[in-house]
């Protein structure tokens, strides 16, 4: 009861402040008036009313003081003091707006950038995968030996037959299953569509721990015989879009690639397979025996869930042992000493493309440096400010302010700035997270397994709070320094000359302020070096020519349904080409099976027939491409020797090939390849001999970074191929032609799907997306670091200069020239720039090594970059110290001597 | 420069003043001036201090829940604030008095046998 009374009383005193004050005044006035009356009464009227009032006042004591103490007793003191502190802080901020703006901006940038990047790192790299017990999930791979120019790989895909050997003997996994991304045609509302699907075994969903949201998984008997499992699970998005989330969909038919399937289930929301792209899930036994019967037809990825109590290491060891058993059953058909194997690793290791992972980690390191610089900057700004306030603090101590009270005042100032800076930082982080989601470098990369994408990045509060905490602690630590110092300083000295006795001190003394500025410069150099290297690398990358003219080039894939006979495809191909070429605004059109910048196309071997055959397995690898005769001229690949294909290179005529310049140089060293006989290991060109009729310029079919490979081109007319990628050179915007081309394809072949529609420039841009992503952010951080270092130096130098105003005056009076004064102040800046720069150079040389794998044609210690960055940084730092130096030197001696 | 806590004049006095106020208010609810007069009269002015010091003490007792206050009319017809001791105030007074008596008794014994 009484506790409640007490609380109610305090609350009332706090919330109804004016009423409280009035009552207190009333009560004390009542006391005084009554006492005065009593005194007069006691004196029997011998006391004048005024004297009585005075006497009562004397008995009562200092009214203001008792009021103050009464308020303190009600617990109001704390709030009073806080209000005072806040309004005092605001007043002092108004006097130094530049200081406040810089501190707030520094904190906001440091906190915001760190929170955003850490949020990305957490979401993409650190957060648990969204599956049941994700640490028990592993990927299983074949290990392929090095053969020819192909290096050994420990992440090779499976063939179904080899998988069966492993699956039947393994004892370490609770479940193990194959899966593969695949495309099927589907008759949608607006004609045929190609959709991405996954093909997987019946144990796929149980292995990763996913239950269908509706219906059932594939049955064991649907996992037995190739070609007879015509059932399908719908992805959640597909189900919602096509079937309006109708729960009666189970059991309904769905025609895919012209074959009827039965819908047996719906996948849970958000699950699009381990590839992250699947709209449907088909059983592996929906594939024909062509996919499944051949032990050397490698196409499938493997995923497994560890049995209880089995460690990942044991599973990997068992997989290696099973790899030897697979090799025994299916020994390498050509090379005796080349052995295949198998291995397993945690699924988590392949959750994101290694390049993206590395970029993110580098960015996190970079942004942590930005935070360090930001803290150093805030620290040095507070130090400068604190030093400037030494006299104020000395005065306040002298007139009796308590040390605790002063600390509280300074704490309030630091906290206010931190809160404002932190709020601004939160805004930057929020914006940054959205930006990162939009930049999404992983979407364009075809590697990585689609387990995570940048759309899942959310603002990470833990990161925000950590950064905020660090910034506040820095602010507090440096904000409080003046009070801690003040206890040791002799008041009279500070009051007398306003602080340091500048002439008595060593001029070049490295104060803590200068040390912080030096640290900033060093850290900024590390960041700038990283930014410079990636910029240079990106420039190199963008300077790589793809080997043809990519401008105004529309590319789109046309896929005929499986049931369209092979024989009708050449007609369809030619008909579409003829009609597209006739569209006004189209300069030319052609077709190839697989576009440049695809990250690789079909590969095979090439054998020269003008000399004895090489041993099997030692023939050189080539990329093989099917083209219409007009393809090189349409896309602008130059003819170097011989001729292009012509309409005369038809079936029944002598077989012909074109080769790339690199292939010509490597495969026919020193001789003219024209008319040389060759065999190509695909497209029916192995048992026949074809003549090389021309040499064309090199084209990048892999990525911009990858080395140019040997390429060989076959004419569609002599080697049937269903894969058709049309290239349309337009006069204007390529994408404006899409509708017309689609209409033509629909007219020519109603069941053919048009998909993968993009401009060639877009495809090339994709291949640099990761480099552009990390370069953009690193450059941003580098510029921030440079700006912060410049601000830090400027603050320190101008403060130091202002402390030496009197010294300047004396020097001028003694005959120093303006230039000498400038040099005097600038000297400090030079020291900061050189010392910081050299420390930074050493640190950067060590740090940029982590960039190695991300750089293209630039060494991590590229001297040109380092020299440029060093010059840039020292230049900016010198400029930042020259400004205050010039100002200091302009001071008139009398004015200087009169200050303080 | 506001000061959060005044330097205590005398610890004994401070504790004692609280006790005296509570004891006085066990007689009947009173306004501040009456409390001051009562204490001054009964202590033969020995404990007379600056009367203003009464108000922080009253405020402290209010905030601790040992007293409640209410505005009422004084016999002279003026508005005055009347203080009433609460149950927990009486309990607190009992504890204070017994501990005071223990100290007093101890001092007494030392003085008697000294």
Structure description:
- The complex is a heterodimer of chains A (900) and B (114).
- Helices cover 51% and strands 15% of the residues of chain A.
- With 900 residues, chain A is an alpha+beta fold.
- In chain A, the strands form three sheets. In chain A, strands 1, 2, 3, 4, 5, 6, 7, 8, 9, 10 and 11 form an eleven-stranded mixed beta sheet that branches.
- Chain A is elongated and about 140 Å long.
- Chain A starts with a helix and ends with a helix.
- A three-stranded antiparallel beta sheet of chain B has the order 1-3-2.
- Mean pLDDT of chain B is 79; it is low at 1-12.
- Classes of the chains: A alpha+beta (900), B alpha+beta (114).
- The A-B interface holds A 1-6, 9-10, 23-24, 26-28, 30-31, 33-35, 38, 59-63, 65-75, 77-78, 80-81, 84, 396, 399-402, 405 and B 1-6, 31-33, 36-37, 50-53, 55-60, 62-66, 68, 71, 74, 76, 78-81, 86-89.
Summarize the structure.
The complex is a heterodimer of chains A (900) and B (114). Chain A is an alpha+beta fold.
Q: How many helices of chain A in DSSP terms?
A: 27
Estimate the helix proportion of chain B, in percent.
55-70%
Please provide the count of β strands of chain B: 3
Q: Assign the structural class of chain B, choosing from mainly alpha, mainly beta, alpha/beta, alpha+beta, or little secondary structure.
A: alpha+beta
Beta-strand share of residues of chain B: 5-15%
């Amino acid at each position: 009861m009484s506790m409640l009374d007490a609380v109610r009383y305090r609350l009332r005193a706090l919330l109804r402040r004016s009423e409280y004050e009035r009552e207190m005044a009333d009560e004390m006035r009542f006391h005084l008036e009554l006492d005065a009356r009593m005194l007069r009464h006691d004196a029997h009227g011998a006391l004048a009313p005024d004297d009585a009032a005075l006497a009562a006042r004397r008995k009562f004591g200092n009214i203001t003081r008792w009021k103050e103490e009464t308020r303190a007793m009600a617990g109001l003191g704390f709030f009073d003091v806080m209000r005072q502190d806040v309004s005092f802080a605001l007043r002092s901020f108004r006097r130094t707006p530049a200081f406040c703006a810089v501190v707030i901006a520094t904190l906001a940038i440091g906190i915001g950038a760190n929170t955003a990047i850490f949020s990305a790192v957490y979401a993409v790299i650190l957060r648990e995968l969204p599956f049941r017990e994700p640490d028990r999930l592993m990927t299983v791979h074949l290990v392929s030996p090095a053969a020819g120019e192909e290096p050994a790989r420990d992440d090779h895909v499976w063939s179904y037959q080899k998988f069966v050997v492993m699956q039947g003997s393994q004892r370490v996994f609770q479940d193990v299953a194959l899966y593969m991304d695949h495309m099927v045609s589907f008759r949608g509302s607006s004609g045929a569509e190609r959709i991405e699907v996954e093909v997987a075994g019946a144990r796929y969903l149980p292995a990763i721990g996913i239950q269908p949201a509706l219906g059932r998984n594939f049955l064991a008997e649907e996992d037995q015989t190739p070609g007879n499992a015509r059932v399908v699970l719908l992805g959640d998005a597909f189900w919602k879009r096509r079937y309006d989330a109708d729960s009666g969909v189970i059991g309904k038919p769905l025609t895919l690639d012209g074959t009827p399937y039965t819908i047996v289930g719906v996948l849970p929301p958000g699950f699009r397979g381990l590839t992250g792209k699947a709209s449907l899930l088909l059983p592996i036994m929906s594939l024909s025996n062509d996919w499944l019967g051949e032990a050397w037809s490698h196409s499938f990825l493997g995923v497994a869930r560890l049995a209880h109590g089995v460690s990942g290491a044991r599973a990997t060891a068992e997989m290696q042992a099973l790899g030897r058993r697979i090799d025994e059953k299916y020994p390498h058909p050509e090379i005796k000493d080349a052995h295949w194997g198998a291995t397993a690793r945690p699924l988590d290791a392949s959750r994101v493309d290694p390049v993206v992972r590395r970029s993110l980690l580098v960015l996190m390191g970079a942004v942590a440096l930005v935070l360090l610089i930001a803290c150093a900057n805030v620290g040095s700004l507070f130090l400068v400010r604190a030093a400037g306030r030494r006299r104020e603090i000395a005065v306040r101590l002298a007139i009796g302010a308590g040390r605790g009270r002063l600390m509280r005042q300074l704490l309030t100032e630091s906290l206010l700035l931190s809160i404002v800076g932190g709020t601004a930082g939160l805004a930057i982080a929020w914006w940054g997270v959205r930006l990162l989601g939009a930049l999404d470098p992983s979407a364009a990369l075809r590697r990585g397994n689609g387990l995570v994408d940048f759309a899942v990045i959310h603002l990470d509060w833990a990161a925000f709070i950590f950064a905020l905490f660090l910034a506040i602690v820095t602010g507090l630590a440096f904000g409080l320094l003046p009070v801690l110092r003040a206890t040791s300083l002799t008041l009279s000295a500070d009051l007398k000359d306003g602080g340091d006795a500048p002439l008595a001190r060593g001029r070049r003394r490295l104060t803590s302020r200068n040390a912080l500025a030096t640290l900033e410069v060093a850290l900024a150099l590390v960041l700038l070096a990283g930014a410079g290297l990636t910029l240079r690398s990106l420039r190199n990358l963008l300077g790589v020519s793809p080997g043809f003219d990519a401008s105004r080039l529309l590319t789109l894939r046309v896929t005929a349904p499986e049931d369209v006979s092979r024989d009708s495809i050449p007609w369809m191909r030619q008909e579409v080409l003829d009609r597209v070429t006739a569209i006004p605004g189209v300069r030319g059109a052609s077709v190839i099976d697989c576009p440049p910048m695809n990250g690789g196309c079909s590969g095979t071997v090439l054998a020269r027939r003008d000399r004895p055959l090489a041993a099997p397995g030692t023939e050189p690898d080539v990329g093989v491409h099917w083209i219409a005769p007009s393809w090189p001229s349409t896309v602008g690949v130059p003819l170097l020797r011989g001729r292009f294909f012509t309409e005369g290179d038809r079936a029944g005529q002598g077989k012909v090939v074109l080769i790339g310049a690199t292939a010509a140089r490597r495969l026919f060293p020193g001789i003219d390849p024209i008319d040389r006989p060759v065999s190509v290991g695909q497209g029916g060109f192995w048992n026949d001999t074809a003549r090389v009729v021309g040499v064309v310029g090199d084209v990048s079919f892999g990525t911009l970074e990858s080395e140019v490979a040997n390429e060989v081109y076959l004419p569609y007319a002599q080697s049937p191929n269903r894969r058709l990628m049309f290239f349309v050179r337009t006069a204007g915007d390529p994408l404006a032609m899409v509708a017309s081309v689609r209409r033509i394809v629909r007219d020519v072949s109603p069941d053919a799907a048009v998909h993968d529609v993009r401009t060639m420039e877009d495809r090339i841009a994709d291949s640099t997306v990761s480099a552009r992503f990390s370069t953009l952010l690193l450059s941003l951080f580098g510029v921030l670091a440079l700006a912060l270092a410049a601000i830090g130096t400027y603050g320190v130098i101008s403060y130091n200069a202002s402390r030496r105003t009197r010294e300047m005056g004396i020097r001028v009076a003694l005959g120093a020239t303006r230039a000498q004064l400038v040099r005097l102040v600038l000297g400090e800046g030079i020291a900061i720039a050189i010392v910081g720069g050299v420390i930074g150079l050493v640190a950067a040389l060590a740090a940029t090594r982590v960039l190695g794998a991300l750089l293209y044609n630039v060494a991590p210690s590229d001297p040109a970059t380092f020299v440029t960055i060093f010059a840039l940084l020292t230049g900016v730092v010198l400029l930042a110290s020259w400004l205050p130096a010039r100002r200091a030197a302009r001071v008139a001696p009398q004015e200087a001597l009169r200050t303080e | 420069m506001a000061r959060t806590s005044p330097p205590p004049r005398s610890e004994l006095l401070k504790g004692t003043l609280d006790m005296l106020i509570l004891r006085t208010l066990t007689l009947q609810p009173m306004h501040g001036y009456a409390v001051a007069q009562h204490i001054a009269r009964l202590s033969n002015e020995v404990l007379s201090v600056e009367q203003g010091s009464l108000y922080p003490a009253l405020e402290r007792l209010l905030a601790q829940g040992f007293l409640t206050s209410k505005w009422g009319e004084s016999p002279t017809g003026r508005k005055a604030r009347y203080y009433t001791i609460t149950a927990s105030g009486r309990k607190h007074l009992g504890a204070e008095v017994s501990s005071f008596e223990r100290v007093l008794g101890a001092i007494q014994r030392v003085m008697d046998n000294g």
